[in-house]
Design goal:
By secondary structure, this protein is mainly β. The protein folds into 2 domains: about 1-120, Sandwich (Immunoglobulin-like); about 145-265, Sandwich (Immunoglobulin-like). It is built from 1 helix and 18 strands. The strands form 5 sheets. Strands 12-18-17-14-15 form a 5-stranded mixed sheet. A hairpin with a 4-residue loop joins strand 5 (about 50-60) and strand 6. It is rod-shaped and about 105 Å long.
Length: about 270
């Protein structure tokens, strides 16, 4: 896009036509396909212009197109749109207001502007569109995958015989833990890996005890799948955590966590 500063309008009794901006669509154009050039013309002078013409010429000075340019009052602009049919690579054009100089103007230097029309080959256009399509598809699939895998969730996690946030057991008990996974997506979720861990909250350690893993080949859409794990209770407060990783058929794994507190006390 071409633009120039037209705010410093000289005070004079004559018109002063100027090419304010140039825009092309599409940018870049494609060889053999029609595009458009829109030119904004302003009158920075102190008097109306008389009707004239505006021309587009190629680098050799050959006229490519011209249009009638009506009268433009002071501090008013007019937009003219031309159709172009680029034949090959990018090329330079000149845009001229009133080429026969029928209008008296104090400044004619701003009546001529050179502009490079950006053009790409059909192959470049095809490759660029394919890349845009791949980016769009990847973004759409990524958003869908995240939304879908967010729909894989734990409906519950706790003791098999009692589901609540804070649960109790006695030292030495074999606590059977159970979690229920639910696939809220409209597609199957594959390769679900569930890592169970128990971390003591009353000891000066940050390393959890791994309780093992559960692997599920797939969970169908809207399916609920219970999974179980045994934990030999030791006295204290334990944070039982599940780390779940899953993926759609050809996507990267998407992980999430869920935990609850198990309190182990000697009631005797």
């Amino acid at each position: 896009m071409y633009s120039c500063n037209v705010n410093n309008r000289p005070e004079n009794p004559f018109p002063d036509l100027a090419i304010d901006s140039i825009e092309q669509f599409p940018n870049p154009m494609t060889e053999g396909k029609a595009g458009k050039i829109t030119i904004k013309i302003t009158n920075n002078g102190g008097a109306p212009s008389i009707p004239s013409v505006i021309e587009i010429r190629d680098a050799a000075g050959k006229k490519l197109a011209s249009k009638y340019l009506p009268q433009i009052d002071p501090e008013v602009f007019s937009k003219m749109t031309f159709n172009l049919l680029p034949a090959g690579a990018s090329y330079k054009i000149s845009i001229i207001i009133d080429p026969k100089e029928k209008t008296y103007e104090a400044n004619r230097r701003n009546n001529l502007v050179f502009y490079n029309v950006q053009v790409e080959s059909k192959q470049e256009n095809k490759e660029r569109n394919l890349e845009k399509a791949r980016e769009y598809t990847a973004a759409a699939r990524s958003n869908y995958t995240r939304r879908c895998l967010n729909s894989l969730r734990l409906l519950s996690l706790g003791r098999k015989d009692k589901i609540m946030d804070y649960e109790k057991a006695e030292p030495g008990d074999e606590v059977e833990l159970v979690a229920v996974l639910f696939n809220g997506c409209d597609k199957p979720v594959h390769e679900i890996d569930v890592d169970w861990s128990a971390q003591p909250l009353d000891e000066q350690t940050i390393m959890p005890t791994m309780l093992g893993s559960t692997k599920i080949e797939r969970i169908l859409a809207s399916e609920k799948v219970p999974i179980e794990r045994m934990f030999i209770a030791r006295e204290g407060r334990w944070k039982i955590t599940l780390f779940v990783s899953s993926r759609l058929s050809d996507e990267k794994p998407f992980p999430f966590l869920m935990s609850f507190i198990l309190i182990v006390t000697d009631n005797n």
